[in-house]
Amino acid sequence: INQLIIRERDRSTLISEACRLLVANRGYRAAMIILINEEGGPESWAMQGIASDSSELAEMLEQGTLPSCCGHVPAEEGVLLVENRKTVCKSCPIADMCADSQSLCAELAHEGKSFGYLAAAAEKHLDVDSDEKNLFRETAEDFAYAVNVMNIENARKKFESEHEKLQSQLLQAQKMESVGRLAGGVAHDFNNMLSVITGYAELAVNEIPQENPLHSDLQEILNAARRSADITRQLLAFARQQAISPEVLDLNETVENMMKMLRRLIGEDIDLSWNPSPGLWCVRMDPSQLDQILANLCVNARDAIKDVGRITMETSNITFDEEYCSDHPGFKPGEYVLLAVSDNGRGMDRETSDKIFEPFFTTKEVGKGTGLGLAMIYGIVKQNNGFINVYSEVGRGTTFRIYLPRHEGDLQHSKVPAAKDVPRAGGETVLLVEDEPAILKLAGTILKRLGYKVLQTSSPIEAVSLAKEHTGEIDLLITDVVMPDMNGRDLAERLLTGYPEMKILYMSGYTSNAIAHHGVLDEGVNFLQKPFSSRDLGIRVRRALDS
Ligand code: ADP
Ligand code: MG
What we know:
The protein is of the alpha/beta class. The protein has helices at residues 2-7, 11-26, 55-62, 85-88, 95-98, 130-207, 213-238, 251-266, 287-304, 322-327, 350-353, 373-383, 437-449, 460-469, 488-498, 534-546; strands at 28-36, 42-49, 79-81, 102-110, 113-122, 247-249, 270-275, 283-285, 309-320, 334-343, 387-393, 397-405, 429-433, 453-457, 476-480, 503-508, 516-517, 520-521, 527-529. Helix 15 links the parallel strand 15 and strand 16.
């Protein structure tokens, strides 16, 4: 038994082996070890010899009750030789089986702590004297010592693995955060340049007749610039710096409206099934973000399917309680709407799925994948206080689950109809403030061509004096949000005192806290995302003026 105690590192093997040895080598008719939990109830046990197959005893232990002899062990002595069977064994299901043996029970005690009980049935003829009782108690204490060592060891292991898990989660979060900041910064500066490229190419293309070969050259420049703008848009989404205008949405309805587009995207060889769950709660998010999420998930699913296959989209309501969240790091308790997209494609291994949300991670050939799709989805989901989770098995398929927080409230249909043609000026005056000279010049040119009277400056301080000197009305202020001397919002506030009727249109490559909280625009703010086309600018200006 001492060897067993030193060698064995598994609790259940320890106690079952110990019982076997006690019966085989010490001549007990039965041996039983019960380990107890924090509350003092039976947690695990082992038995050998008579009564070891008693289903009544097992059932009693399952239900959390200890055999009655355990409760009669005198505390100071630590061991009991049952003499008064009538009282001690009264409610015990194996009382009859022990009746013609001498029953011993000792506490597994170590340093004042109890780990459970050791019980045994000795032959009637054996002389159970005080030496025998002491030996029995010492054996129980040795077990207690071994169990204590194992508990400490297990706690240490658990702590270490949890620590490791947390550490790697933290590292991952930090990495995503810094990559996000880098990506967002690059995208922001790049956006300004793209605005200029797109803007001038658009202006030029409109001046040149179609049959001129320069026309199609310029058209190519425009196409490339638009594709680049797509990339910066995705980077900004990943960095959570994309300006959004959330609306209350019924996901079932929004997804339904996208089905035609998604079917076209995935082609004819792949089945797309759609299982909306009835009575779905509302969410509040920017519908264009939902487009981005679904389009990207479906394209990825399509790419993972070799020839024919199936993509399934479903929705449902789901509530996470504290308990669920403590088992699932990163999840917060609350009510959520689940949007799941599954495919039966090739799936991915652990190494891949650990990296998929990182920007530029792709397993696709050069030119096929950018590695930005899931990074963008990750950013969008975070920006909307949701979670995303992926489950995948190699060769079987993948499921992405997106949980978006429930929005308490009703649907409100307040969509502005999209303008077809770029609306022109009706004699209005616009004050344009933008610290990037190339964009200032471009926007000024576009606005003048649309027929607006334009006052323009690259400095907010100068804008204040321009406004003071100006004698007529100023109908609209178009201003960058982040500028060196004064931010766009402060500028607007100062100008509003002189021109209380003036409308405001902010433009920016990303949102700043001046007009948004965590990228979510304040209610009623007119906003133009850079890079913009001349068409975007024309439409937004008209909309702001008419708002
Ligand atoms: P991209 O599609 O440009 O490669 P994504 O960020 O959209 O970039 O995806 C990153 C990688 O994640 C993919 O290259 C692919 O390896 C993996 N992946 C994404 N979705 C799936 C899926 N449904 N099944 C298998 N692998 C996937
Ligand atoms: Mg993709």
